[in-house]
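Structure in, sequence out. Go:
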């Protein structure tokens, strides 16, 4: 009897934890996405909190029918409402994400539309330029990873750039598609707040703006992958960009961001690519890449990281045609 009672207490404790965690998530979802005024938000969040506590009380009072009714009446409408919140491609976007990349591969030719090549003087002062560019896949030489640190050593934005023997590099950045006046919030990113954008860009735009205009600590790592792997990864980016352009998706701070989507592409290319906690903390990616032999081992990781900083080499007035070559000086090759 004691053993059964103990198991019952453990079971109810686990269900209680599940109800409380679900209650917090539901309350935050309502707060984040209800846009009809503060009174409605306060009221519905309070009502959902009361329903959660009532469900917990019914659980411990062993009133199973009451528990089921409370859960059905609170979670049914919530999930129905949540499922109905759909992403859109038609909003008043900020200029830098007004267009998203689209591309096609025909034999050896890669054609990329909506390549962003802005000239930035500040975050609000820039010249807009969108281009269509063509590349020969036979001239693809490799891929590099940029990590732009903006909140300590654990948080960074990842950009993958593909290098060609006869053309400037082509960079891909997986970003939130902000509307005019909208600001980024990691918490809001869990709750269907931002659409996803796949941006194809010139490095003088997407890399330089972070290093010289926004003052972020940008670091460059040459990826130690074969040319055929780089080509396959580029193909994954093309497929993802076209899919997002055709069918809008939500960004998610945890499951659909600049690193988890890259990891998903890598896993499709090679299922042996291992999951690791550092995938969730992009700033720690160099450790992961070093351990798994995806970056140079010519020097220790500490020296590789020290030589990866592009900041001192990034500054020069536009058009700065030598930017991509200059920032790679001194970075160890695989």
């Amino acid at each position: 009897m004691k053993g059964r009672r103990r198991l019952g207490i453990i079971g109810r404790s686990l269900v209680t934890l599940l109800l409380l965690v679900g209650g917090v998530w539901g309350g935050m979802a309502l707060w984040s996405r209800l846009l009809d005024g503060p009174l409605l938000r306060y009221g519905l969040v309070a009502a959902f909190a009361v329903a959660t506590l009532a469900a917990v009380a019914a659980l411990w009072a062993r009133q199973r029918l009451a528990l089921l009714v409370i859960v059905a009446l609170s979670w049914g409408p919530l999930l129905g409402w949540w499922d109905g919140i759909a992403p859109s491609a038609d909003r008043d976007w900020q200029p830098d994400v007004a267009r998203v990349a689209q591309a096609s591969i025909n034999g050896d030719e890669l054609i990329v539309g909506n390549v962003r090549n802005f000239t930035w003087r500040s975050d609000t002062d820039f010249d807009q330029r969108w281009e269509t560019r063509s590349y020969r896949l036979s001239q693809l030489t490799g891929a590099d990873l940029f990590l732009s640190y903006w909140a300590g050593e654990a948080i960074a934005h990842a950009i993958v750039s593909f290098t060609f023997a006869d053309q400037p590099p082509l960079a891909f950045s997986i970003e939130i598609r902000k509307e005019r006046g909208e600001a980024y919030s990691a918490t809001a990113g869990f709750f269907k707040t931002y659409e996803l954008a796949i941006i194809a860009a010139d490095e003088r735009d997407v890399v330089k703006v972070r290093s010289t205009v926004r003052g972020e600590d940008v670091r460059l790592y040459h990826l130690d992958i074969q040319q055929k792997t780089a080509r396959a990864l580029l193909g994954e980016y093309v497929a993802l960009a076209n899919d997002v352009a055709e069918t809008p998706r939500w960004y998610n701070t945890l499951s659909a961001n600049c690193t988890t989507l890259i990891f998903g592409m890598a896993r499709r290319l090679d299922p042996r690519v291992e999951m690791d906690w550092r995938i969730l903390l992009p700033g720690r990616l160099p450790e992961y890449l070093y351990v798994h032999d995806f970056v140079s081992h010519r020097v220790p990781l500490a020296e590789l990281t020290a030589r990866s900083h592009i900041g001192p080499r990034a500054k020069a007035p536009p058009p700065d045609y030598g930017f991509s070559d200059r920032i790679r000086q001194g970075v160890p090759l695989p």
